[in-house]
Design a protein that fits this description.
The protein is α+β, with helices and mostly antiparallel strands. The protein has helices at about 1-30, 35-65, 70-90, 95-115, 125-145, 145-165, 170-245, 250-270, 280-290, 310-330, 370-380; strands at about 295-305, 335-340, 350-355, 385-390, 395-405. It has a five-stranded mixed sheet. Helix 2 runs antiparallel to helix 5 (about 125-145) and helix 6 (about 145-165) runs antiparallel to helix 7 (about 170-245). The relative contact order is 0.06.
Length: about 400
């Protein structure tokens, strides 16, 4: 009995260590593709199936330990082949066909006849555990071998069952039950493997489509951001120069043109430098200076500005620049007022207002253009902020930028 207990402990230990090994491989190799997940699941499933058969074998051998000592050698051989086949599968991620064939031929076909011929087995009950191992062997063969090889394996195992049970005088019910178990093991395992592979492919396709959609979305967002930047900078400069309202040779205008030419050059080369490291005050000052170079006078005041995330500072600056561009293009006053303060509600936010004393407009009849809609409102919305416009005919325009919303 101690030897049987040792063998039983070995069986359970092999199954437990194998499961832990499989989990460790999944942790170190990442989630993996759908096919890799299906393979891992099938290795684990067939491993547990084989472990249950080995456990039955250990218990069966333990009951007749004195009469049939050769059965200990048989269960040891089955355990060794199982360790070889499943150990290699856990290391490689799938079964080695040579190991599968060795398990089928030795455990499923040869072992029963060795027990009958030299092991003194003369009763179906004593042979059952060895025949049972053929079921788990056929299950692995059904998923690891090619179609015609699977048919050959099943045929070999069925013939071995028929001959072996005939030799020990098994009843038709016992014979039919074991053959049915063998065939069912192969069929059910193959169906499960087919289904998991199909689901794995569907999962991989869905992941690929999701990644492609994200990449397309990222490219669109980048293109939209470039369009906004071009609208607020290069297009604004060219429109002002074309209108003839400023001296194109003025140092400030030439400096602005040089900066925007450098931006276009970086854009073409796809190496545009990010400026998201700026604080909100510095970002707003750069926006004010950019518009003043086109001869718009800006009175700017800053008070108790908080630290905000870099993308928020950039959104404030870009939205304020476009609001000031709108003053220069439409207000007809040549003067704007910018005020930036910390939010007084204690949330650590900020409020920036751009005001002019121009003629204003009727919001009910005015359709927002690209500048107000895309460069002001959308920019603030993308970072969780809000842009509002307060105006009326003869009242000027007040644009308020607020973060958070």
């Amino acid at each position: 009995m101690p030897a049987a207990m040792i063998m039983g402990g070995v069986v359970l230990s092999v199954a437990f260590v194998s499961i832990r090994r499989l989990r460790a491989l999944r942790r170190t190799s990442g989630v993996g593709s759908g096919l890799q997940r299906a393979q891992s699941f099938m290795i684990l499933t067939t491993l547990l199936y084989r472990a249950s058969h080995l456990t039955v074998g250990v218990l069966a051998v333990a009951q007749r330990r004195h009469d049939l000592p050769l059965q200990y050698a048989g269960i040891a051989v089955a355990l060794a082949l199982s360790a070889l086949s499943y150990g290699a599968a856990l290391r490689r991620g799938w079964f080695d066909r040579r190991h599968v064939w060795a398990d089928v031929l030795v455990t499923g076909c040869v072992l029963p006849f060795v027990l009958i011929t030299w092991g003194g087995v003369r009763e179906p009950a004593l042979l059952g555990w060895a025949m049972l191992l053929g079921g788990s062997a056929s299950a692995v063969a059904a998923i690891a071998l090619e179609r015609f090889h699977v048919l050959a394996v099943v045929a070999l195992l069925v013939v071995s069952h028929l001959i072996g049970y005939r030799m020990v005088g098994a009843s038709p019910a016992v014979l039919g039950g074991h053959v049915n178990s063998l065939l069912s093991s192969a069929v059910m395992t193959w169906v499960m493997w087919w289904y998991l592979r199909r689901q794995g492919r569907l999962l991989d396709d869905a992941n690929a489509r999701a990644l492609a959609a994200e990449a397309h979305k990222a490219r669109y967002a980048e293109r939209l951001e470039h369009h906004r930047a071009l609208h607020d900078t290069v297009l604004a400069t060219l429109t002002t120069l074309a209108a003839g309202g400023i001296d194109a040779n003025a140092p400030q205008v030439r400096a602005r043109c040089a900066r925007e030419a450098a931006y276009l050059r970086r854009l073409i080369q796809q190496t545009a430098d990010e400026v998201h490291h700026r604080e909100i005050g510095e970002a707003l000052e750069e926006a004010v200076g950019s518009v003043e170079s086109l001869q718009l006078r800006v009175t700017a005041q800053y008070h108790d500005l908080p630290k905000v995330p870099p993308e928020v500072a950039a959104a404030f600056a870009d939205a304020a620049r476009e609001a000031l561009n709108n003053v220069r293009r439409h207000a007809g006053t040549g003067h704007a007022y910018l005020t930036a303060t910390g939010d007084t509600d204690g949330r650590g936010g900020a409020v920036v207002t751009v005001v002019d004393r121009g003629p204003g407009f009727d919001p009910e009849r005015h359709v927002p253009g690209l500048g107000l809609r895309g460069s002001v409102r959308d920019r603030m919305a993308e970072v969780g902020g809000l842009a509002t416009v307060d105006t009326a005919p003869g009242e000027g325009v007040r644009v308020e930028l607020r973060w958070p919303r």
